[in-house]
Design goal:
Number of helices: 7
Largest sheet: 8 strands, mixed
Shape: globular
Radius of gyration: 20 Å
Strand content: 25-35%
Distance between the termini: 41 Å
CATH topology of the largest domain: Trna Endonuclease, Chain: A, domain 1
Structural class: alpha+beta
Order of helices and strands: EEHHEEEEEHHHEHEEEEEEEEEHEE
Strand order of the largest sheet: 12-18-19-15-16-17-14-13
């Protein structure tokens, strides 16, 4: 649980308009999204199945520029559920490979110190992740979002009688976590080579790591889909971490399609950030 915003004595706040909620998210975006950058992004896109127009709300890009998200912001109200479902369905069916120019426009808003034309070309070749931001925990919204491939991030607003706003995050997302250490506290997850096979037992990949790398027998790992717990098994010369192969990130590494990197979070030595990159054989 984490609070972001102004100081004061706060009670639960209700926004009347979605745009008001969005404006406050952009105001505190640097504090909310510590491992990424968020900008308003509303290009006219096309649902490739029905050719209907659809506009997202925001563009979210990881600080290492290896992942990006198409973001929809909603007030979690029952009256908005059907329209939200229609919106997420359209966004999930867009061919983002043909929107390099639109991605560049969003990147230019971020004032990056890199060539945005090259970065937009890179991102347009990568299937985006999808993120739904809502203002309160709601199982129906989360269920619909998951059906269309959207992760859900709850950002709950609180306010004072003077109108100051503070946000609370009940659960972090990989984009909101403290960036991982760039240096020593990291390890690569290498796919099996040659005739080797991943040691998968009961849906868990048992991966050997140097003894003592993990300081705890139970660690949390954040990938681009979720934050999950993994058990560490202590052995004589190496330790073993159990990784769920049902997750796309772990599956892609175990199959040899990608190489993973586990990096320790700056804020918590029991939390590790998992990033992946293409395995260039």
């Amino acid at each position: 649980m984490r609070f972001v915003g102004d100081k004061g004595s706060f009670v639960r706040h209700t926004f009347n308009k979605e745009r008001e909620f969005e404006k406050k998210i952009y105001k505190y975006s640097d504090e909310l999204f510590r491992a990424s950058q968020l900008v308003r992004w509303t290009p006219l896109l096309r649902d490739r199945m029905f050719n209907e127009g659809v506009r997202p709300d925001s563009l979210l890009v990881a600080l290492d520029h290896d992942e990006w998200w198409v973001v929809e912001v909603e007030l979690a109200r029952k009256s908005k559920l059907n329209s939200m479902q229609d919106q997420l369905g359209k966004l999930s069916r867009v061919n983002y490979n043909i929107h390099q120019h639109d991605i560049k426009i969003g990147l230019d808003k971020m004032s990056l110190d890199i060539d945005t034309a090259k970065l937009s070309k890179k991102l347009s070749s990568i299937q985006p992740r999808f993120l739904l931001i809502i203002d309160r925990i709601d199982e129906e919204f989360t269920k619909v979002a998951k059906y269309f491939g959207f992760q859900t991030l709850v950002i709950e607003p609180y306010s004072t009688i003077q109108g100051n706003i503070r946000f609370m995050l009940p659960v972090e997302h990989i984009s909101t976590l403290e960036p991982a250490f760039n240096a020593e506290k990291s390890i690569k997850l290498i796919p099996p080579r040659g005739d080797e096979k991943a040691q998968i037992i009961n849906g868990m990949w048992h991966y050997h790591v140097p003894s003592g790398f993990f300081s705890s027998d139970l660690v949390k790992i954040a990938d681009s889909e979720e934050i999950f717990e993994s058990k560490v098994i202590r052995m004589d010369e190496t330790d073993v971490i159990r990784l769920p192969v049902e997750l796309r990130s772990i599956q892609s590494i175990s199959k040899g399609n990608k190489i993973g990197k586990l990096s320790c979070s700056e804020a918590d030595d029991r939390l590790f950030i998992l990033t992946t990159q293409r395995n260039r054989l």
